[in-house]
Design brief:
The protein is of the alpha/beta class. The chain is built from eleven helices and ten strands. The strands form two sheets. Strands 3-4-5-6-7-8-9-10 form an eight-stranded parallel beta barrel, surrounded by four helices. A two-stranded antiparallel ribbon has the order 1-2.
């Protein structure tokens, strides 16, 4: 496993990290969750990403139960705030941030998180109020650092311009061979301001693993076949996308790696990416993904892959 500096922080995060969106506490049983976490640590993964809204607290709760048996300084823990936790609890107001960080810490069974992230931007709350509230969280010791997810360049720049508040160290965008939008502005802006990317959906929810064949039913044990985990995959299951992904297989074979490793290595080729978040419903899935860290692939193969997927919808 390789470890990379997270922005201007002192955190060294594993290049492959373990996420819990649609999986732990929701679509994956507790015993399999424990097995996945145990295997992640065995493979050198030290960075665990979750959010209060995943399962409306269920993901944080199951992670808290499992992680409570490990030394707190042996892993890096990140969670998020913004999306509705009830009919009245949502957003990034000072009151909500204060309430939700305490609730997250209780579920996670810890005194602090290493990274507290704004899950989205809140247009209904003044940015100054949000940044001051996040700064209070850091200065009270409840979080070590702060980050954001899916903010626009203008929103990011506005936050940087506010004096006397804690600085963001991370950005969590969707980024993959099939979704390169962050390269246009977010990555250059982040790199210039001590912010690293923590990438979500680097495998396009598993589509870049090559497991989904055009015109065929999804494998029974796949995310796309799951009622609880597959409802967000429609955008990636289009025939033209699946056909293009099949054309990537010879490139991965030439590189001497799996399709997943090829796609993850492509993401990690970007210097501003600190970590690529993967999901896992079975521990053996992590064996393949973790091996992408440190993999060397000929840039010419990446260029061929980029040409194959150029012009696809969603890019």
């Amino acid at each position: 496993m390789q470890y990379r500096q997270l922005g201007a922080s002192d955190l060294k995060v594993s290049a492959i990290s373990l996420g819990s969106w649609l999986t732990y506490g929701v679509g994956v049983e507790a015993d399999k969750t424990r097995a996945c976490l145990n295997r992640a640590f065995e493979l050198g993964i030290n960075f665990i990403d979750t959010a209060n809204v995943y399962g409306r607290g269920a993901a944080e709760t199951v992670l808290g139960e499992i992680l409570s048996g490990r030394p707190r300084d042996s892993y890096i823990l990140a969670t998020k705030v913004f999306f509705p936790m009830s009919d009245t609890d949502r957003g990034l107001s000072r009151a909500q941030i204060a309430k939700q960080i305490d609730a997250s810490l209780k579920r996670l069974r810890t005194d602090y998180v290493d990274l507290y992230q704004c899950h989205r931007y809140d247009p209904e709350t003044p940015l100054e109020e949000t940044m001051e509230a996040l700064s209070e969280v850091v200065r009270s010791g409840k979080a070590r650092y702060i980050g954001f997810s899916e903010w626009s360049p203008d929103q990011i720049e506005a936050a940087f311009a506010i004096p006397g508040v804690e600085r963001f160290v991370s950005s969590q965008p969707q980024y993959s061979l099939l979704h390169r939008r962050p390269e246009q502005k977010v990555i250059p802006l982040s790199a210039a301001n001590g912010v690293s990317q923590i990438v979500w959906s680097p495998l396009a929810q598993g589509v870049l693993s090559g497991k989904y064949a055009p015109g065929a039913k999804p494998p029974v044990d796949s995310r796309a076949a799951s009622d609880s985990m597959g409802n967000m995959m429609g955008a990636w299951m289009k025939p033209e996308i699946l056909e293009a992904v099949q054309k990537l297989k010879p490139l991965a074979a030439e590189a001497g790696c799996s399709m997943s490793q090829f796609a993850l290595s492509w993401v990690l080729r970007e210097p501003n990416v600190a970590s690529a978040i993967v999901g896992a419903s079975r521990p053996e899935q992590l064996n393949d993904n973790a091996a992408a860290a440190g993999l060397t692939v000929d840039p010419a193969l990446f260029a061929k892959a980029e040409a194959i997927v150029a012009g696809l919808p969603g890019r």
